[in-house]
Amino acid sequence: MENTRTRSTSRVFIARLVGTTVFDPLGDAVGKVHDVVALIALRGEPRAVGLVIEVAGRRRVFLPLSRVTAIEPGAVITTGLVNIRRFEQRHVETLVFGELFDRVVTMRDGTGQVTIRDVAIERDRGMDWKVTRLFVQRAASGPLGLRRGETFMVRPEEVSGLAGSADQQSATALLATLEDLKAADLADVLSDLPLARQLEVAAELSDERLADAVEELSDDDAVALLSGLDASRAADVLDAMQPDDAADLVAELPQIKATELLGLMQPEEAEDVRRLLTYDEYTAGGLMTTEPIILPPEATVAGFLAQARKAEMTPALAAVAFVCRPPLETPTGRYLGMVHFQRALRERPQKMVGSLLDKALDGVHAEDSIGTVTRLLATYNLTALPVVDDADRLLGAVSVDDVLDHLMPDDWREADEAVTDEMIERSANG
């Protein structure tokens, strides 16, 4: 593919432009390119009019291409003037990466349909940016469609369907950019999409990956997404979620829907969720997860480290193991104490965790308030606390990230953006 380095006439391919850092004239990073905004009419040459860039606080703002002085490999240089107002797409605008990539269009020469894999823009003598080339691919051929289709360049006027709806686009290109995102960032991307598009992307994600993202969505977004899924898929996603997060989400659903999904979940997972729903939201019981690392006293350090390495274990919960008498499913046998990950790293792999117990803290009870939990976490510099019953059986554990989720205001993402805006304004005013 052609070089993305641009002067006045060289081509810039959008696939390479997305993710590029945007700099002001002094060399300070402003944000990263998230997409390109184009105006595509049924007739006339398509024009690129601006960039959507992601700035501090994951806010996406519009940067007119008229304020871009250069596009080079790994850098977009601007005049330094960036409007911090959140980008809102107008009905006449098309997001090139988000809406055109993987769109199926028809060749006007009668040779069939092709799929858009990349889009090139060029700056003309009048300093306007035009969509000048489409990098397209024909459908796979051969037995079982194993032979990769031909790829080639065409001009926008050589195809029809470019100005069609986003329904013609599959989720493949979007998913490629989401693959390496952390769950919180994936949730942020999903929340910016229309619900229909969210559901399309969700259909291509594994249950575990979607569950991680749903845990990071706001209550309203999570309920809308889960309600839009097929009931059996929604139940599978709840199964893959942390029990406390699943319980919080089920509590937000209409009663009929909640009952339906609980009935479709795995019995063990559903039982954990039902148990958590009996506790008040702002108590240790309402905050806890029923699936921390639980080990018998004869388990080895090597066994503890193997449990901590599991991908589904959050960093806060991986930092400590809770040692109990059998049974090891919550509610367990008698709780004996906790073993800290850092302490375990200093011991031989064959060492039994029962000899490394920290017994300084008995644990909290399910009815204890979030204030009590917070004070203990802060006092003892812990990432998780055991929750026990009157018989000293382990019911679960409260992690610091769960406490933070409940202490932050409901609109904390917007509040963060407001703080960011204020900091930017103060900086601009000296």
TrEMBL record:
<dbReference type="Pfam" id="PF26205">
    <property type="entry name" value="SH3_actinomycetes"/>
</dbReference>
<dbReference type="InterPro" id="IPR000644">
    <property type="entry name" value="CBS_dom"/>
</dbReference>
<dbReference type="InterPro" id="IPR046342">
    <property type="entry name" value="CBS_dom_sf"/>
</dbReference>
<dbReference type="InterPro" id="IPR006668">
    <property type="entry name" value="Mg_transptr_MgtE_intracell_dom"/>
</dbReference>
<dbReference type="GO" id="GO:0016020">
    <property type="term" value="C:membrane"/>
</dbReference>
<dbReference type="Pfam" id="PF03448">
    <property type="entry name" value="MgtE_N"/>
</dbReference>
<dbReference type="Pfam" id="PF00571">
    <property type="entry name" value="CBS"/>
</dbReference>
<keyword id="KW-0129">CBS domain</keyword>
<dbReference type="InterPro" id="IPR038076">
    <property type="entry name" value="MgtE_N_sf"/>
</dbReference>
<dbReference type="InterPro" id="IPR058838">
    <property type="entry name" value="SH3_actinomycetes"/>
</dbReference>
<protein>
    <submittedName>
        <fullName>Magnesium transporter mgtE</fullName>
    </submittedName>
</protein>
<feature type="domain" description="CBS">
    <location>
        <begin position="357"/>
        <end position="417"/>
    </location>
</feature>
<dbReference type="InterPro" id="IPR006669">
    <property type="entry name" value="MgtE_transporter"/>
</dbReference>
<dbReference type="GO" id="GO:0015095">
    <property type="term" value="F:magnesium ion transmembrane transporter activity"/>
</dbReference>
